Protein: Solute carrier family 35 member D2
Organism: Dicentrarchus labrax
Amino acid sequence: MSAKACPETVEHSVQLKFFSAVFYAGSSFLITVVNKTVLTSFRFPSYMCLGIGQMITTLVVLYAAKTSKAIQFQDFDRTVLLKMFPLPLLYVGNHITGLASTKKLSLPMFTVLRKFTILMTMILEVYILRKTFSKRLVYSVAAIVLGAMVAASSDLAFDVEGYTFILLNDAFTAASSVYTKKKLGTEGLGKYGVLFYNALIIIIPTLMASAFTGDLHKAVAYEDWVKATFIMCFLVSCFMGFVLMYSIVLCSYYNSALTTTVVGAIKNVAVAYIGIFVGGDYLFSWANFLGLSICMSGGLAYSYFTFNTTSSRSSTAGEKELKIHITEDSTGKY
C-alpha cells in the first residue's frame, strides 16, 4: 500500500515545486521593476529606508495572520536567536546591497551580474548541504556564468561602486538561500517563523544604521512624499518585499537552494529584454545581447533538466526511486 501511495505523493510534490517556482519568478520580476521605478524614476534617495518599509510590512502581515490563527509559528524566546543565526545578518546584507545595486546599475546589467549568484550557491550547497550535481546541471550553470561574463564585458556604463554592490549582493543571496534551506527544517520555526524573525531581529539595527549614515534624514526630507503616484509605488514596493521573501522561502522549501536561484535568473530574461526598451539607461551592444541570450539558454536548460528529471521520477514506482524519495524526506533536504 505504501508503494502505491508514494507516486501520488511525488506527483503532488512536483506540482508544488513547479508552481512555487513560478510564484517566485513572478514576484521577483514585479519587485525589480517596482524598486527600479521608486529608486530611479522617482529618484528616491534612500534604498535602506525602502528596505525598512518592506521589513515593517512583513512583520505587520505575519503578526496579523498569527493573531488571527491563520498561521502558526513559535513565540519569541532566547532560543530563536540561536535557531536563526546567521540568517538575519545574511538577510540584511542581501537586502541592502540588492537595493543599492538596483539604484546604481542599469536594469539589464543588474540582471546579468546577478547570474554569479548561481555559481556561488552551487559551491555553498556542495560544502554546507553536502549536495552533488550532475554534469548536465554543472554545464548549464557554466553557460549562465559565461553568458554573464560576455554581457558584462560590453558594459559601457561601468560603475565600480555599482559592480561592488552587485557582487556583494550575489554572495549574500547565495549564502542566504543555502541557510534558508537549512533553517526551514528547524523545529518550531517553519516558513513563517523564518520570515517573521528575520525581519524582527534586523529591523532595529537597520533603522539605527539608516539614522547614523544620514540615509533616514534624506528619506524624510524627500520632496515627492506629497505625490500620490510615488506613495502608491512606495507602498507597492513595501508589500512586494513581503511577497518576494515569502515566495523565496516557499520555493526553497519545495526545491533546492540552487533551483530557487536559477529560477530567479530565468525570470530575468523578461526583465533584461524589457529593460532594453524601457528605462532609457541601457546602452545596446551585440556582445551584451549575445551574453544575455547565453545566460537565458543555460537557465532554461537547467530548469528542463531539473523538472524533467523530477517528473520522470514521479511517474516511476521502482524500488530505486522509492528509496531516494524516502531518504530525501527523512533528511529534510527536499
Notes: The radius of gyration is 20 Å.
